[in-house]
Amino acid sequence: MIGRIISALVGREMGRRSGGSGGTSGAVKGVVAMSVLRRMGPLGMILGGGYAAKKAYDRNRARKSGY
User: Fold this and answer.
1) Rounded CA gap, 64 and 34, in Å?
2) What is the pLDDT of residues 9-65, one digit of tens each?
3) At the top level of its lineage, which domain of life is listed (predicted)?
4) pTM of the predicted protein model
5) CA nearest 15: which of 66, 55, 57, 61?
6) Which of 2, 37, 51, 67 can pair with 62 through a Cys bridge, CB separation 3.0 to 4.6 Å?
7) Using CA atoms, how far apart are residues 41 and 61, in angstroms rounded to an integer?
8) What are the C-alpha distances in Å from 8 to residues 56, 62, 67?
């Protein structure tokens, strides 16, 4: 369950980075990325969650600073 949530977050962030709206292409990228991260074991899940959390933190900080 947590893996699917992280997969969705990673896919959304990857979709935003590539300039898309984060729709279907982001979901596909998230599934592929999470399948790779799952094979890495717990370290992969930590890396995926950390990636999504860092992007969300940076976006929040930029929004607060008015950038």
Assistant:
1) 30
2) 777 777 776 665 546 776 777 777 777 877 888 888 888 888 888 988 998 899 888
3) Bacteria
4) 0.58
5) 55
6) 67
7) 31
8) 13, 22, 26
Q: Which two tokens stand for residue 2?
A: 């947590």
Instruction: Report whether 8 contacts 46 (CB < 8 A).
Output: no
**Quick one: tokens of 45?**
């899940």
Q: What pLDDT score does 4 carry?
A: 73
Helix %, strand %, coil % of the chain (to 5) = 85, 0, 15
What is the H or E stretch that residue 62 is in? helix 42-65
